[in-house]
Design brief:
With 502 residues, the protein is of the alpha+beta class. Helix content is 25%, strand content 24%. The chain has four domains: 102 residues, no CATH class; 149 residues, no CATH class; 89 residues, D-amino Acid Aminotransferase, Chain A, domain 1 (2-Layer Sandwich), CATH 3.30.470; 91 residues. Strand 1 and strand 2 form a beta hairpin.
Length: 502
């Protein structure tokens, strides 16, 4: 793996070379009797069995790596009351605890272990920071940069859709930060009507930095102020794990790192800290290279990695929670299927009959991710994306050290399955998805549909806000039942892409 801390473009031959975010970290190689510092250029020669620990050593655990980082590294993961899957043991989500409950449990465990009282004032933050705009609730201009370029036209989507979507499964142990201070009128009443075992969240319209400990969706620079109560996880570690260059530290079961964008084509270039499909380029030719070069100039030269291109047959994601005591809670898996035109749909397919098979496919990847995260002292929610080729070979391509997008929908399906024995669900949130009408009209229409179709299928509005008063709502919506075709038709009725302006 080549790495550059200054220029991302080699002016001698015009090729773009990997410019990793690893340069700002300390790299440590573990051997049987020693820990020694290494450099990024040597990564390819170090056996993956010798875990590389990457950390900002002056901030992690307020001590040296030897004191705080490696205490629990070498023992096998051994969890009580769970099912053995090789050396990794996981327990299924029991449909009774929610996001804030798990964070409260984890904080209580850590406080007891350290002989302290648990922090009482905790806020769940499900809104991501922005680097490209100061209009977002949280701006990361320097240290923990997230490349959401081009700047979003509106920050309402980030400020409302995500927090409300996750809020539906947050529980009440800790409040959820919501910039508006309250969900769209009617949304929580809709959740209470449609989601079995629903536990209403509370909302916090501000975070008091000196008092509130924050469970961050992604690390926020403002919470590193000297007087701040801080974030649940060390932000430097959290930021590292959120980077696409971290994947090659965890596993060899991933796409191959390439030195530049010219030697092997097609190749894939990914900005290390971006979300969704932003900052991802497939380089087939010099024209693609020029487009990528322009992106680098426009977006402030983000760090990136270059990997080989793999023709993908399946696109699978899973969601889990890593407790600081070693337990892993499994929420489930979802898959993106191909549409008639051969492209992968952005809809999440939730199929209960496939859950065990998908878990079996993904556990080898999850095991390596869990070991790496725990060795770094990171705990909490996580999701990974694994791509499979036509031969069944899997490639870990993304790790999301946070609650992930389809997790609330999976949890909703499992709750509805207990009541109605539903087996399938379709969840739509990606892109500009709309209901054309007011929020009140949407809730009324969904209520009437669910009443007429009770026991057959259920529509759940996971999140929304009125983008155009009384005319258009941006929505996240799921349909749950027993027929994928029927769910798809209903989903298309309520959740429509933006209409093109003539």
């Amino acid at each position: 793996m080549s790495s550059s801390s200054n220029n991302h473009i080699d002016n001698n031959d015009g090729r773009h070379r990997t410019a990793s975010s690893l340069d700002s970290m300390t790299l440590l190689q573990i051997s049987d009797d020693a820990i020694k510092e290494t450099v990024a250029e040597d990564l390819g020669a170090i056996p993956k069995a010798k875990l590389l620990v990457m950390t900002d050593t002056d901030k992690l655990h307020d001590g040296s790596p030897e004191d705080g980082l490696l205490v629990d590294f070498e023992h096998d993961l051994d969890f009580e009351n769970s099912v053995d899957h090789g050396s990794l043991k996981v327990g299924e989500w029991g449909c009774k605890k929610f996001y804030s409950d798990y964070i409260k449990e984890g904080l209580a465990y850590k406080a007891k272990k350290e002989g302290k009282e648990p922090h009482k004032d905790v806020v769940m933050l499900f809104e991501s920071p922005s680097t490209s705009t100061t209009e977002s609730s949280f701006h990361n201009p320097t240290k923990y940069r997230f490349h959401d370029w081009p700047p979003p036209k509106s920050t309402l989507s980030k400020a409302v859709l995500g927090p409300c979507r996750y809020g539906s499964m947050n529980g009440s142990a800790y409040p959820v930060f919501l910039r508006a201070g309250a969900a769209t009128p009617g949304l929580m009443e809709h959740w209470a009507e449609t989601i079995p075992n629903y536990c209403p969240p509370t909302w916090a319209s501000k975070i008091e930095i000196e008092k509130d400990l924050v469970y961050s969706y992604l690390p926020v620079e403002a919470f590193e102020a000297e007087n701040a109560a801080g974030q649940v996880n060390a932000p430097a570690i959290h930021y590292h794990l959120a980077g696409k260059d971290a994947i090659h530290m965890m596993t060899t079961k991933t796409t191959k790192l390439l030195p530049d964008t010219h030697t092997i084509r097609p190749c894939v270039v990914k900005t290390t800290h971006s979300m969704g499909s932003k900052g991802i380029f497939i380089i087939h030719n010099d024209e693609d290279e020029k487009e990528f070069e322009q992106f680098l100039r426009d977006s402030g030269n983000p760090t990136f990695v270059i990997v080989d291109f793999v023709d993908i047959a399946r696109n699978v994601a899973c969601h889990f929670f890593m407790h600081p005591d070693g337990r892993v809670v499994w929420f489930g898996s979802n898959e993106n299927h191909r549409d008639a035109d051969g492209r992968f749909s952005s809809d999440s397919y939730l199929l209960l009959e496939h859950q065990e098979k998908l878990k079996e496919m993904q556990l080898p990847f999850v095991e390596e991710v869990v070991r790496y995260c725990q060795a770094l002292g990171f705990w909490g929610f996580c999701g990974i994306d694994v791509l499979f080729d036509s031969k069944g070979l899997g490639y870990l391509v993304d790790i999301n050290p946070r609650v992930t997008g389809s997790c609330p929908a999976l949890m909703t399906l499992k709750l509805l399955s207990k009541k109605y024995n539903y087996q399938v669900g379709l969840f739509r949130r990606s892109g500009d998805i709309n209901y054309y009408g007011s929020a009140a009209q949407l809730f009324q229409e969904v209520h009437e549909h669910n009443k007429a179709s009770e026991g057959k299928n259920t529509v759940v509005v996971h999140s929304l806000f009125e983008a155009e008063p009384n005319a258009r709502c941006r929505i996240n919506l799921g349909v749950y039942g027993n027929s994928l075709e029927e769910c798809k038709n209903i989903l298309n009725r309520f959740a429509q892409p933006a209409k093109k302006v003539k």
